[in-house]
Specification:
It comes from Sutcliffiella rhizosphaerae. By secondary structure, the protein is α/β, with parallel strands linked by helices. The protein has 3 domains: about 190 residues, Rossmann fold; about 90 residues, N-(1-d-carboxylethyl)-l-norvaline Dehydrogenase, domain 2 (Orthogonal Bundle), CATH 1.10.1040; about 130 residues, 3-Layer(aba) Sandwich (Rossmann fold), CATH 3.40.50.720. Helix 6 links the parallel strand 5 and strand 6. Helix 9 packs across helix 11. It is elongated. Bound molecules: 1,4-dihydronicotinamide adenine dinucleotide and uridine-5'-diphosphate-glucuronic acid.
Length: about 425
């Protein structure tokens, strides 16, 4: 099929390249000229494992192209995907101005039947609203709108798309259902067909539920610390029950990223507008906001509240591993708090440092973890990168000033840390006291 994808962020780019990989002809459109020029050369604006190779392969196979010219890109397309950003407004509501601009542009040009699909995460009712805009601009209704929300995760976006567990297709016509089902057949996945409003709701409900699992286990972690239990074992014991499942029960410093914080707030706003008080999700957000500061409390506790002049090595800045995305990363809030206390923070992240400098004023970074930890009073882990999982703890102990490790991601075993003589504080587990001065 001929596909046009509008917006080349994570979602537009990954879904565009994956649609081309399964045999379609895809044009990805963006208003950012620089981005498009780079993409034409196979230069990828984000760090995402496997993406560059797949983009280059599909450009060479002439199945994938990039353009700033929506009119031409639309001309031969049967299906148009809208994949622009829907950032949060001040009150939590999703800002639909980019979606509105795209719908208006599509409407101005639309002259034959196409299916126009929203891939961006949008409030319930947006599909119908888009339909109204396009009808008004085009002066006809020879098109269908549909919803096909995206469930990929950053850092494993290609895998998640090529191996999707389900495709949700919200439609109001047989033709749109037929075309979108056909498009998804090569993914050999479960297909959930619904009306448009239901599809829009599925996306928010899924993200809010995953966020709930994280805040739930973080609250259990906080109780574990008070009563002397180990949250990693609690999560294992709970998660082996199929009805609960192991996934998303890793306690830590809470969720960040461009979606969970934004989408939970947007859902609260959708509920409010509908006259409903969404109590659970409000608390999920509240718990998450506080959870990141527990790491700050643990650093202070290690030094009897005196961080003045302490050299702290922060390992990991991105909101999760395998991405350079800094949106709503816990490090943005944690590092300035440590600096306010007079600590000298030296940070290292395998790929996110460039973006981190835009988000964290006065951030000092170094090019390797070993430079960061040299003579450090404490090492603080904020992102669970594989590189940190494989840290040689004996070498580390030899280069730091004192063996203090504060771990926001529960990466090491308490027994190992005890044996190596570290002071080791993590989340929802007992603190190994070691013998620091
Ligand atoms: N980032 C992620 O992992 C996921 C994001 N989503 C949702 O997908 C949507 C897109 O997210 P991202 O890809 O992260 O967004 P992004 O903000 O990184 O990228 C959006 C792109 O759209 C372009 N754009 C804006 N206005 C345009 C216009 N009028 N015409 C053409 N291009 C235009 C921008 O230049 C930018 O390149 C959001 O609604 C998000 O909630 C859903 C699942 C996963
Ligand atoms: O709508 C979206 O944008 C996407 O949001 C999330 O994907 P993403 O934000 O890329 O990353 P996740 O792997 O879900 O992690 C989100 C945050 O939760 C944290 N997390 C995750 C799992 C866990 O057990 N504990 C935990 O603290 C991570 O560290 C990270 O900060 C969802 O997992 C995707 O399905 C969805 O498509």
């Amino acid at each position: 099929m001929n596909i046009c994808v509008i917006g080349t962020g994570y979602v537009g780019l990954v879904s565009g390249v994956c649609f081309s990989e399964i045999g379609n002809k895809v044009t990805c459109v963006d208003i950012d000229e620089n981005k498009i020029n780079n993409l034409k050369e196979g230069i990828i604006p984000i760090y995402e494992p496997g993406l560059e190779e797949l983009v280059v392969k599909n450009i060479e196979a002439k199945k994938l192209s990039f353009s700033t010219d929506l009119n031409t890109a639309m001309e031969n397309a049967e299906i148009i995907f809208i994949a622009v950003g829907t950032p949060p407004k001040e009150n939590g509501e999703a800002d639909l101005r980019f979606v509105e601009a795209v719908a208006t542009s599509i409407g101005k040009k639309l002259n034959n039947y196409k299916v126009i699909v929203t891939k961006s995460t949008v409030p319930v009712g947006t599909g119908k609203w888009i339909k109204g805009i396009i009808e008004k601009e085009s002066g006809h209704n020879n098109f269908d709108v549909a919803s096909n929300p995206e469930f990929l995760r950053e850092g494993s976006a290609i895998f998640d798309t090529m191996n999707m567990e389900r495709a949700v297709i919200g439609v109001e016509s047989e033709k749109a259902k037929e075309w979108l089902t056909k498009l998804h057949e090569p993914f050999k996945t479960n297909i959930v067909i619904s009306d448009i409003e239901t599809a829009e709701m599925i996306k928010y409900a899924a993200n809010a539920f995953l966020a709930t699992k994280i805040s739930f286990i973080n609250e259990i972690a906080n109780i574990c610390e008070l009563v002397g239990a180990d949250v990693t074992k609690v999560a294992e014991g709970m998660g082996l029950d199929n009805r609960i499942g192991q996934a998303f029960l890793a306690a830590g410093i809470g969720y960040g990223g461009s979606c969970f914080p934004k989408d939970t707030n947007a859902l609260i706003n959708i509920a409010e507008k509908a006259g409903y008080n969404l109590k659970i999700v409000k608390d999920v957000e509240d718990v998450n906001k506080n959870q990141r500061f527990r790491i700050y409390d643990k650093v202070k506790e290690a030094f009897n509240s005196d961080l003045n002049g302490k050299k702290l090595a922060v390992l990991g800045l991105a909101f999760k591993p395998n991405t350079d995305d800094m949106r709503a990363a816990p490090s943005i809030d944690i590092i300035p708090k440590l600096q306010e206390e007079g600590a000298l923070v030296l940070a290292y992240d395998p790929v996110a440092m460039k973006n981190a400098h835009k988000e964290i004023p006065n951030l000092q970074t170094v090019e390797s973890y070993i430079e960061a930890v040299q003579d450090a009073d404490a090492v603080i882990i904020l992102t669970d990168w594989e590189e940190f999982k494989n840290l040689d703890l004996i070498t580390l102990k030899g280069v730091v000033k004192q063996p203090v490790l504060i771990d926001g991601r529960n990466m090491f075993s308490l027994d190992d840390m005890e044996e190596l003589g570290y002071y080791y504080a993590s989340i929802g587990r007992k603190t190994v006291k070691g013998n620091i001065k």
